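hi! just following up on the protien thing from before. the input was this:
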Amino acid sequence: METFKDYLPAENLLQGRVILITGAGQGIGREAALAYAAHGATVILHGRKVQKLESVFDEIALLGKSEALIYPLDLEKAEEKDFQITAQSIAQQIGRLDGILYNAAFLHGLTPMQNQTVEQWRTVLQINLISSFALTKACLPLLKAAPDASIIMTSDSHTIKPTAYWGPFLVAKTGIEALVKSLADEWEQTIPHLRINSIIPGAINSPQRAKTHPGEVKQNMRQPKDIMSTYLYLMGSDSCHVSGKTIFC
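and the predicted 3d structure came back as:
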C-alpha cells in the first residue's frame, strides 16, 4: 500500500474537469466535493437525500470557483437502466466526465452471522459493490473520451485483516479491491489514460464510523479534511501513472 499524505496539490489541479461523487451529502463525500470544487472541478453531487445535497451545493457556490450539479439516486433500488440514464444525463447536460469518486456506503451494523439475513446481504452488496460496477460500465464511454480520467473506489481496512461481524460489508469491500485490480489490468493496454485505484480512509470522524464505533471520542479523531490530499492526488493528473493500487490514508 502507498500513502500520499504530504502531497501539495496545485490550486488549479482539477480546472475544467467534471467529477461525479457518490454519497456526496455528508462526511468524506461532502469534504471531497468541496475540495474538488475548490481546485476547479465541476462537481456532480450524488446521494439519496436531496436536502443534504442542496446544503453541499450551497457550500460550493460560496467558494465562487466552480459549479455543482445535483443528481439524486437511490442505489439500493437502482437497476441497470437507471445507471444508463445517469450517464446519458451527464452526457447531455455537461458533455464530459473526467472522474468518479465512489464514496457511498451502507451497512446495517455489526452483528453475528446468525442474525444476518439474505435481504441484508443483497442490500449491502447492491449499494457497496454492484452499483459501483453498474455505474462504471454506464459511464465508460464518457470516461474513455476524457483525455485523462480517474476512478477512485472506497475500500476498508478490514479487507486487509478480516474480522468477525462485518459480514456482507466486508465481502463487498473485498470485492471492490478485486474489481479495482481487475479493471486496472484490463484497461492498462486498451484504455491507458483511464486509471482506477482504491482508498482506505482509516479511522475518520464520519457518520459511518459513528455507526460502527459509537464509543469513540470523535474530537480526537482525524477529520475528513485531513485526508483530502490523497483524494486530490488520485483524481488529478499528477497520479496519471498510478493504477490498480490500494492507497491507505
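Residues 12 and 39 are 5 Å apart (CA to CA).
Strands lie at 18-22, 42-47, 68-72, 99-102, 149-154, 194-200, 246-248.
cheers
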